[in-house]
Amino acid sequence: MIDTPTRRVVLGVGVFAAGSMLAIDRSLAQAPLATTPACHDGDEVTLPQTEGPYFKPSSPERFELLEEGMAGQPIELVGFVLTRACKPLAGALLDFWQADDKGRYDNSGFRLRGHQFTDAEGRYRLRSVVPGLYPGRTRHIHVKVQPRDGRVLTTQLYFPGEAKNRSDGLFRRALLVRTAKNAGWLAGRFDFVID
Ligand SMILES: [Fe+2]
Predict the structure, then answer these.
(1) How many A from CA of 40 to the centre of ligand 1?
(2) What is the pTM of this model?
């Protein structure tokens, strides 16, 4: 069975589990993340990055990419899609794709691929595994973000504390996911800012 992390994920508390404060580990609660988007008017837009060779259109609509028996560190990544004026965007499309724990993409099927839409508050939630390394690249998750009637932002998200961040020419600090470990899950937070 896949255990549900929702009540224990710290970084997600402000976004999806406001009622679960009691479940927060004390050490992590000392540095809580904002319950609202951490941005201000005129914020920098999220950097675009190359799509790479492994994007496939027509991914299934789902936020749960984790499958039973899937190897790797489970992660719940949450956040907002925002305008530069810090306004949450409802109904924005997010299409995620990534390598598995061994650094392999599923190019014949749709394993670890899925799209979803932000809710009325502009929030998204992805459950997956931390992607593995493959030659030349540090750990990363690919994503396309598109507001209703807006242009597509293609980019990649990175993980803090990765040795390979230093040698991967595509790596950008601005695209780091904020993370915290929580009861076997990695909690991640990233807010997209769209022009
Ligand atoms: Fe990749």
Answers:
(1) 31
(2) 0.83
